[in-house]
Design brief:
single chain, 281 residues, alpha/beta, Rossmann fold, 2 domains, six-stranded parallel β-sheet, three-stranded parallel β-sheet, 16% strand, globular
Length: 281
């Protein structure tokens, strides 16, 4: 059984990103990221802090815009419009989740699709579904890079994605379909889940339920990708019961240290790619 080390893989990619960013700076282009954070969600604070830390390590300019949870929607949208026009900002992210008083889809719709480095906008998702990929959502992209690093071929494989969110499940399914996989998406309404997951050569789980997937849900030799981040008794655990499945699977991503580091790395990879396009223009 192999542990797919997302921390190690992300470090290798980050080393290359840093070199590319330094080369870009010599041409007068400094990649820039604008982050909008609303409220004081503990997980969001951690995610943003980790993003800013890696920006500093790689040499990416960043601007953080904080708002209280009672902010007016128009104020957030005005900030998005400002960032759209800022030539020093290549990527814009709206940190999820937003308070219930704000419409996330509406606010996201104002993000210039050229700067949609999260890859959640309608333009980016539409290109993905049309197999004309532009900016790819960071978590699915990170998962793809992990599989590629481990020489795990998805072409022709049966892949089950548990979780149908717009952040992970849906774009990931399209990404894998574009690469020749046979993809099944399971979700909260899915019946006979165990029968479906046991068909998976590669099982990817993103549902936010700690240790939900046990050995009874997988077939021998399956490859398991755990996207879940759940805090239980002060510890971070995944959606897969690691101890239960390690003797049955061929490979698995740990939590923490698996998909998480790759998500941040591929987000900043997207920022760099947009900055390169700015240079070419």
């Amino acid at each position: 059984m192999k542990i797919i080390d997302g921390t190690l893989i992300s470090k290798k990619i980050n080393e290359k990103l840093k070199i590319d960013i330094e080369a870009l700076k010599k041409e007068g282009i400094i990649p820039g990221l604008g982050i909008i954070l609303v409220g004081h969600d503990e997980a969001s604070e951690i995610y943003v802090r980790n993003k800013l830390k890696l920006c500093d390590e790689l040499g990416i300019h960043h601007e953080l815009y904080r708002f209280s949870s009672d902010v007016r929607e128009e104020e957030v949208i005005d900030t998005v419009k400002k960032l759209n026009q800022d030539t020093n900002i290549d990527g814009i992210i709206i940190q999820s989740p937003l308070p219930d008083s704000l419409c996330e889809n509406k606010i996201m719709s104002y993000v210039d699709y050229h700067k949609d480095v999260d890859g959640f906008g309608i333009y980016s998702l539409g290109h993905l579904l049309a197999n004309d990929e532009e900016i790819l959502a960071a978590t699915p992209y990170g998962i793809l890079k992990m599989l590629e690093h481990e020489n795990i071929v998805v072409d022709g494989k049966n892949i089950v994605v548990v979780g149908a969110s717009i952040i992970v499940g849906r774009p990931l399914a399209a990404l894998l379909l574009n690469r020749g996989a046979t993809v099944t998406i399971a979700h909260s309404k899915t019946k006979n889940l165990k029968e479906i997951t046991k068909m998976a050569d590669i099982l990817i789980v993103a549902i936010g339920k700690e240790k939900f997937i046990t050995k009874d849900y997988i077939k021998d030799g399956a490859i398991l990708i755990d996207v879940g981040i759940n805090r239980v008794d002060g510890k971070v655990v995944g959606d897969i019961d690691f101890a239960s499945v390690i003797d049955k699977c061929d490979a698995i991503t740990p939590v923490p240290g698996g998909v998480g580091p790759m998500t941040i790395t591929m987000l900043l990879y997207n920022v760099l790619e947009v900055a390169k396009k700015r240079r070419n223009k």
